[in-house]
Design a protein that fits this description.
By secondary structure, this protein is α+β, with helices and mostly antiparallel strands. Among the domains are: 68-149, Orthogonal Bundle (Arc Repressor Mutant, subunit A); 165-242; 309-485, Alpha-Beta Plaits. It is 32% helix and 12% strand. It contains 13 helices and 14 strands. The strands form four sheets. A four-stranded antiparallel beta sheet has the order 1-2-4-3. The chain has a four-stranded antiparallel beta sheet with strand order 6-7-5-8. The protein has a four-stranded antiparallel beta sheet with strand order 10-11-9-14, with helices on one face. A hairpin with a 2-residue loop joins strand 6 and strand 7. The chain is elongated.
């Protein structure tokens, strides 16, 4: 199935700056103008030859080398887009020889859609383009300085923008760097009396593909009958959307099938009952098979082995919504050190009134493997080295009742158990909640590996790129009627 380029979105490359056209040189009349003599005699005596450049000479950049025919096509397409039915531009018109609706070219070249063309067109250039290339939409006056919009010889089928839009992939792909170049390439191939003309707008989605708004409803039969460039891929907007949805559905189905295959564990191999008879050789007698022993009965497995170590994930809640991972890690380290001080000094627990105390030791009691946190949120998941560290932090947070008052608050402030402000709470994931989190973690790691090329990046970063897992775990847990504290 043909997949449009829009599923591989790439930012368009920057268009090189274009220099303004060189000024026209005055026409020589054959006579040499007299040079004004200098009144200062020192000027004539102090003439020196030009000094040689000391550094590399920078040559001036040259703009695109357009031919007269290319410029005429650009002017015609720009004028037709300016006078398109959907255009809201209005000019002051006047009557000439009894006919009304004539607009002077001086008003048109001052409009930004025409003045932004490079090179900037003049009135004579626009008049020459209208005489060279026929247009069914614009009429030029006899004097060559006025234009007006003609009445179309047909009634176009007006519909919604999606019904009148086509999706194109031009060749070469760099045509989409300038939307006017796409319109010019289409206008050259299409007939002047085509009911789909004029081209109203071109939307450049990225390098290599664009959407073109025509003046009539376009369907599959119209796309086949319209004369388009042979090497281009042209689709209706409806067909492009249908293929895009179909492609996304196929990708999602393949991803779901992969997840199902990973979740289903292989059945344990069972020992065959009896032994196979060896192959019978021609001309030799085969001895009877030995009696087989009854198969040994294996005890039924009551628990399925888990691919992860249990009790390592600590779920934190009531954090500051604008905090960060280093602050969370430092906050947990100080909570653990403070709890060690309380355990070594039981009397300090009774005298403790919420004032900050100095840590008893600088040794890190807990070793955080990683912090799964995404702003803005007041919850996070922390993976520790051992289950004992997770239990220690959960008990310490419940005992100390500390609140993070700022996003960079590493110590926190102790509050009462019945305080209106919610203190930081930690719960060790167990059972179904823990299994769901590890499944989402494996999915995030697999997704990251598919995006990377082999050997380009360190595979250890896959464990850290799980910031999006948190919301997925919460959503899936809500579906199974579980609550996260």
């Amino acid at each position: 199935m043909f997949v449009p380029r829009t599923v591989k979105r790439k930012l368009p490359h920057a268009v090189p700056a274009e220099l303004p056209p060189r000024a026209l040189q005055p026409i020589s009349t054959g006579s040499v103008a007299a040079q004004p003599e200098s009144s200062n005699p020192a000027d004539t005596s102090s003439k020196h030859p030009p000094r040689a450049p000391t550094g590399p000479v920078q040559q001036p950049k040259k703009g695109p080398n357009y031919s007269e025919e290319d410029l005429a096509w650009k002017h015609i397409v720009a004028l037709e887009m300016l006078f398109a039915p959907s255009s809201s531009v209005r000019f002051a018109a006047k009557s000439i020889d009894g006919s009304s609706g004539w607009i002077h070219l001086s008003h048109i070249i001052s409009h930004r859609s025409i003045s932004n063309l490079r090179p900037s067109p003049s009135q004579i250039a626009l008049a020459t383009a209208l005489r060279t290339i026929p247009s069914a939409l614009i009429e030029l006056s006899a004097d060559g300085y006025h234009v007006r919009q003609r009445e179309l010889p047909f009634n176009p089928l007006i519909g919604t923008d999606d019904e009148m839009t086509i999706y194109v992939e031009p060749v070469p792909a760099k045509l989409t760097d300038d939307a006017l170049d796409v319109a010019v390439a289409l206008r050259k191939e299409m007939s002047a009396e085509d009911p789909c003309l004029p081209i109203q707008r071109v939307f450049g989605l990225g390098r290599g593909y664009a959407l073109v708004l025509l003046s009539s409803i376009v369907d599959e039969s119209t796309v086949k009958n319209i004369k388009m460039p042979m090497t281009w891929m042209v689709l209706t907007k409806a067909e492009h959307d249908r293929r895009d949805v179909e492609y996304q559905r196929l990708i999602q189905s393949d991803y779901d099938a992969l997840r199902r295959r990973r979740r289903v564990s292989p059945e344990p191999r069972r020992r065959e009952e009896g032994r196979l008879t060896p192959p019978r050789e021609v001309g030799r007698l085969t001895p009877p098979p030995l009696p087989s022993l009854p198969p040994k009965s294996r005890p039924a497995s009551t628990s399925t082995p888990t691919p992860y170590e249990k009790g390592l994930i600590l779920h934190l809640s009531h954090l500051h919504e604008e905090t960060n991972k280093p602050t969370i890690q430092s906050f947990l380290a100080q909570v653990a050190n403070r709890q060690q001080y309380f355990d070594k000094n039981p009397s300090a627990q009774l005298e403790y009134d919420g004032a900050p105390i100095e840590d008893a030791t600088d040794t890190n009691l807990v070793h955080v493997q990683y912090v799964d946190y995404t702003k803005p949120s007041d919850t996070a998941y922390v993976r520790l080295s051992t289950p004992a560290e997770a239990i220690l932090l959960a008990r310490a947070l419940t005992f100390q009742h500390r609140v993070m008052r700022a996003k960079d608050d590493c110590k926190g402030t102790s509050v009462g158990e019945n305080s209106e402000r919610k203190y930081v709470v930690g719960n060790v994931l167990e059972g179904e909640r823990e299994r769901i989190y590890w499944e989402m973690l494996e999915d995030a790691k697999t997704k990251g590996k598919r995006k990377r090329k082999a050997g380009d990046q360190d595979r250890s970063r896959a464990v850290e790129s799980v910031g999006e897992v948190q919301q997925l775990v919460v959503n899936k847990a809500k579906g199974t009627h579980m609550k996260f504290d």
